[in-house]
Amino acid sequence: MKIKCLIIDDEPLAINIIENYLEKIENFEIVNTFGNAIDGLNFLKNNSVDVIFLDINMPVLDGINFIKSLEEPPLLVITSAYDEFAIETYELDVLDYLVKPIEFPRFMKSLNKIERRLDSSTKPSGTESSKERSFLFVKIDKKKMKKIFLDEILVIESLKDYLKINTTSGRYIVHSTLTDFTNLLPSRDFIRIHRSYTVAIDKIDAVEGNSIEIEGLRYVIGRSYLEEAKQKILNSSI
């Protein structure tokens, strides 16, 4: 089954670029494209898609209010020329945020995220029940508390007075310091590598020099963390 994609952007050139990228990948299918969010909203009333590539700055109905209008949104990938909306859209649980001009290697990383998310949503849970998995509840808005399973956490990133928690099932913005949140996590499974990053040790794919790699993204290990972090990471391997 191909992954059904919808593109919504008021710039024809931006639509063409994403179309060209998607046409290179055989398991992705473009079901429609629209130059405004209103037409996209009307299309979704009678049609379903797996992922929407969505611009933010559009006339009449912008991308953020478009997302808020969806009762059961599919996966969402923002494609914007501006990065200042990133925090607000992460609070809406978008899967990825691509800043124009979008290079093909970065776009491919987004497609990999889409495939992983869809794969994880269709796989059976197996013998392990959710009650047996460790988790935390975090406050992601004024009223909503979100359960986050610790074994899904990839990276926790400091954003001044907030944190961006990257997991295999989504990204969440919470109001906390990195120190306080890291202290809630089991030290055998997580390590702080920088004043801005705490990472899950078992999600580290590679160690090179003063950096690590997780899901294709590289994170620098701070100088004051380097010796302890490397020792702990390497000693955790079998």
Automatic annotation (TrEMBL):
It comes from the Bacteria. Residues 137-235 form the HTH LytTR-type domain. Pfam families: LytTR, Response_reg. Residues 4-115 form the Response regulatory domain. Signal peptide: none annotated. The modification 4-aspartylphosphate is found at residue 55. Keywords: Phosphoprotein. PROSITE patterns: HTH_LYTTR, RESPONSE_REGULATORY. This is Response regulator transcription factor. The lineage of its organism: Bacteria, Pseudomonadati, Bacteroidota, Flavobacteriia, Flavobacteriales.
